[in-house]
Amino acid sequence: MTLGRHAERPVLLVLAGIGSVQLGAAFSKQLFDVLDPTATVWLRMVFSALILLAIARPRFAGRSRQDWLVVLAFGAALATMNWSIYQSFARMPLGLAVTIEFLGPLGIALLHSRRYLDAGWALLAGLGVALLGWRGSGLTVAGVLFALLAAASWAAYIPLSAATGRRWPGLSGLSLASVVGAVALAPYAVAVGGDTLLEPDVLAIMLAVGLLSSVVPYSFELVALRTLQPRVLGILMSLEPAAAALVGMVLLQELLTPVEWLAIACVVAASVGVTRAAGAGPPGPGLRQPGSAGRRRRRASSRASSPPDA
Question: What single-letter DSSP state applies at residue 295?
Fold first, then answer.
């Protein structure tokens, strides 16, 4: 019995981390009526950056020009991924946006594959997308385009995350990339957010979102990875679209049709299939960091050639 509980604990931690990321996304979306999505994601990145900087305490001495170029590119990918998925959240249900966004890491995994079986998984993922387009009543053109941009950014995030991990120890690279992303979004976010950015209720919610989207999932996954194989982590991370759909249904009353649930199931099954065959799966998007997503993830992302968060 003790051994059974021991084996279940890391899995439960990862699942709790996935739920935490999607809860952060849902709480963020509830602010869209009073705060522009760009200002919302900027506040989230600011709090995430401050928390990560306090934890990582990066050192700058002896850094090469290439080190800085890599972290700047990583920050740009992180900002684009977070900004675009929040724009998608503003235009369609959470679960549908995350499902489309998840095509980014799934596509990278398929491109690196040399197995005939993975062609079948690619067709299954394509079927899921086709089902969304055929009967996806919650879809909007702008929402889909923003989700596709988030998917492309997540795909770029993967190799950049690995490169950053090789050059910057621990969370140093991620914390600095978060600062880069927050600075990049600041001018427009401050312009559209105005005085609302300083309201205590808004700041309190976004501080909670920063914790839910970054600190909690990272801490849980860090503990879980002491005993959990990266392949198993990748399989669990494949549940992100389904988790997003469930959170959207419970907290945001975003009810999906049976066809939309089937589409999400196709993408999840394809991701699980590819991950099991490859031996290591796509990390989350970290700071997506929603969907969301690096989203989320850190140690797995160092194997990303082998998914932001949101």
Answer: -
